[in-house]
Specification:
Helices cover about 35% and strands about 20% of the residues. By secondary structure, it is α/β, with parallel strands linked by helices. It folds into 2 domains: about 230 residues, ATPase, nucleotide binding domain (Nucleotidyltransferase, domain 5, 2-Layer Sandwich); about 180 residues, ATPase, nucleotide binding domain (Nucleotidyltransferase, domain 5), CATH 3.30.420.40. Keywords: ATP-binding, Disulfide bond, Kinase, Nucleotide-binding, Rhamnose metabolism, Transferase.
């Protein structure tokens, strides 16, 4: 049974692909509460490299924003017990003797496309899946590293650090790799959960660039003296490894009270799947592009990536760039009032991956596939939400079929849980209840793993989830109708 000590406070640094935040998490007998102390944008910057545009993360500015948030956190909570960092997956920085060699590339940069064929020339898709259990995504870390190897960028590197590991290194001076995020690289063996050195050697990477692996819940170290001084902390603060892949942390905070649940972690991406004790490495799973990613406490997140609310946010950016004033609440209300049938398109089509004019690309897709072309912004948004709900429903059904796990309820967490229309459409298409929330699931999972490492709370993942359910009651969406036209 979960037990808690007197209330204590930890700081969750939660970095998404479009924004970041620093949250203070209070954990005690009364439950869990969160308070944001800083929110900041996070987006790519476009640089000119040999006459070609490339997308990078402004990781130095992001780190500055993190420090500013931690400064507020330390001022508001002088007794801060711990800090934990999570972020998106696959992207990394190359270092030499502790110095970053270049800004990390953004996973939407096109440089990896030629690297896919080069990688598969050494190890084919079926062989890779048997080794790493990962779905094929053209921006997975191993393809990015092949691109760097081809460009000569690995020649000077003596360390590769994924984004949350990089920030932990800057905070503590300790270079390690937390396993949940390392599992997204394609270079972690899905069975042993160790670096796959034979595969690393075959692909031509220097195995010495890969840092030691640690599990979520491990103390990494204390803040460096310079960092302690910069944020105004009274004493050094522990930095704890949490489920540093944001979805791993989000799944910790799924408020499930039964075992028959599937989850949808919905933000920029939609991660749709089930939690298992071990990987599923079937050819059917590979063909369906399902992935076996590491979870906290050695669990497996068996899931499929869906394009997610990127489709909506990038469409809004396109309209605003053209001079339109968009109020999201009004746009969603108008989409909910659309009564005419709208196109249900393939949300995972690769044409939707890159930044740019997504409304035009969606209309092109509809034209090419003889689907009804959206005539207004409201119709296009309704088409996006119907298409996402369709992809989510198919993902849940496939996860259940491929894994053999019965699903009786779906938990939709993250920012998408606020989109009631999307939640209801998903429930309708599945014919299952969808429980929406908590919105800040990633930060909650981050806080809980820190709190357990600090001895502030004890228990299994199931017991931690029961604590979440008591603290953040989800909103229930019951199927109003069951759609069978998929």
């Amino acid at each position: 049974m979960t037990t808690t000590t007197d209330a204590a406070v930890v700081a969750a640094v939660d970095l998404g692909a479009t924004s970041g935040r620093v949250m203070l998490g209070h954990v005690g007998r009364a439950g869990i509460s969160l308070r944001p102390v800083a929110r900041f944008p996070n987006g790519p910057i476009r640089l000119n490299e040999d006459g070609h545009p490339s997308l990078h993360w402004n990781i130095v500015e992001l780190y500055r924003s993190v420090l500013a948030g931690l400064t507020v956190a330390a001022a508001e909570e002088p007794g801060l017990a711990s800090i934990g960092v999570d972020s998106w997956a696959v992207d990394y920085a190359l270092l030499r003797q502790g110095r970053m060699l270049q800004l990390p590339y953004h996973y939407r940069d096109a440089r990896t496309l030629p690297a896919v064929d080069l990688t598969h020339g050494v190890a084919g898709p079926a062989e890779l899946y048997a080794a790493n259990g990962l779905q094929f995504l053209p921006f997975n870390t191993l393809y990015q590293l092949t691109a760097d190897l081809t460009a000569g960028s690995l020649d000077q590197a003596d360390r590769m650090l994924l984004v949350p590991d990089l920030l932990n290194y800057w905070l503590t001076g300790v270079a390690v790799a937390e396993r949940t995020n390392a599992s997204t690289t394609g270079l972690l063996n899905v069975r042993t959960r160790e670096w796959d050195e034979p595969l690393i050697d075959r692909l031509g990477f220097d195995r010495r660039i890969f840092p030691p692996l640690i599990d979520a819940g491990t103390r990494i170290g204390s803040l460096l003296p310079g960092v302690t001084d910069e944020i105004g902390a009274r004493a050094p603060i522990d930095v704890t490894a949490i489920g540093s892949h944001d979805t791993a942390s989000a799944v910790v905070a799924v408020p499930a009270l039964t075992e028959d649940f599937a989850y949808i972690s919905c933000g920029t991406w939609g991660l749709v799947g089930v939690e298992l004790e071990g990987p599923v490495l079937s050819e059917a799973g590979r063909a369906a592009n399902f992935t076996n990613e590491g979870g906290v406490d050695g669990r497996v997140r068996y899931l499929h990536n869906v394009m997610g609310l990127w489709l909506l946010s990038e469409s809004i950016r396109t309209w605003e760039h053209a001079g339109e004033t968009i109020v999201l609440a009004d746009l969603l209300r108008a989409a909910g009032e659309v009564t005419a049938p709208v196109a249900v398109f393939d949300a995972d089509d690769e044409r939707f991956l890159a930044p740019g004019d997504l409304p035009a690309r969606i209309r092109d897709y509809c034209r090419e596939h003889d689907l009804r072309i959206p005539r207004s912004n409201a119709e296009l948004v309704r088409s996006i939400l119907e298409s996402l709900a369709d992809a989510f429903a198919r993902g849940v059904e496939q996860a259940s079929m491929l894994s053999g796990k019965n699903v009786g309820v779906v938990h939709l967490v993250g920012g998408g849980s606020q989109n009631r229309l999307l939640c209801q459409l998903t429930a309708d298409r599945l014919g299952l209840p969808v429980l929406a929330g908590p919105v800040e699931a990633t930060a909650i999972g981050n806080v809980l793993v820190q709190a357990r490492a600090q001895g502030l709370v004890t228990g299994s993942l199931e017991e931690l989830r029961a604590l979440v359910a008591r603290s953040f009651v989800p909103e229930r969406h019951t199927p109003a109708r069951t759609l069978v036209n998929r």
